[in-house]
Specification:
The chain has 291 residues and is an alpha/beta fold. The protein has twelve helices and ten strands. Helix 7 links the parallel strand 1 and strand 2. The longest helix is centred in the N-terminal third of the chain and has 21 residues.
Length: 291
Amino acid sequence: MTDADCIAFLQWALPQLHLRWPGFQRVRRQVCRRIDGRRAALGLADVAAYRSLLEARSDEWRVLDELCRVTISRFARDRAVWAELAADVLPRLAREARRAGRTSVRAWSAGCGAGEEPFTLAIAWELAVAPHWPDVALDVLATDIDDVQLGRAAIARFPAGTLRELTDESRRAGFEHVGGEEHVRDRFRAHVRFERHDVRTVPPDGPFDLVLCRNLAFTYFDEPVQHQVAASLRTVLRAGGVLVVGVHERIPDGVAGFSASSRCLYIATGTDDSARPLQSLGPPTTRSTSW
């Protein structure tokens, strides 16, 4: 598949999956390699033949939806964001939890991939927060729709290159080098539990003090689904809790219950009673049913 073929195909297919072409523009080669592999496995001559198959077989759209998942991540991605979390956000959440008589800060990493984000959070907590609030624990729920990624997260072994944005202190504290890989130490793994979940469905039970939904919903999904996801996240965020999005993302206009705090951080406003659980949440049903 040529790059021109890739672009033309994605610009045709993505809107039918309620996905945004601009979000895929820079990562299109990863996605198109998968699509071309699927085309070859089906014995089709070219991407035009695969498009014809999609037009004839509605069940193939589910396969295409899975092929469009982007799996690029690393530890402490966007280091400045993590510096703000460690210096300001996490200490405030620990302080407020103790003031309210709670023994833990609950966090949700939505779209956690192979675990780089939730493990980064666990390391940041242990180094920056736990020494000052030893009576407040961190409880992280990490979710993803991709079983392969969740399998990697369960093993918690990573190539050294994925650690390049971590500070030296975090690398030394968080990992042991075994057999050419970096293994997350058990004490940091203990903070995190992994579950399979589609961010476009009804969210896990809250309330959470912190939700990280970065480089997923507000990059790849179309605006109606972004609205759905943002409203859903608010239902499980405690009032005063924090939503973290990617450095190139923002929640769409018109979503109630959030106030921008900084470039990537939103504070949940209102009261906990104002955020009622949704009865049903999912993508528009033209083609796609899972992410």
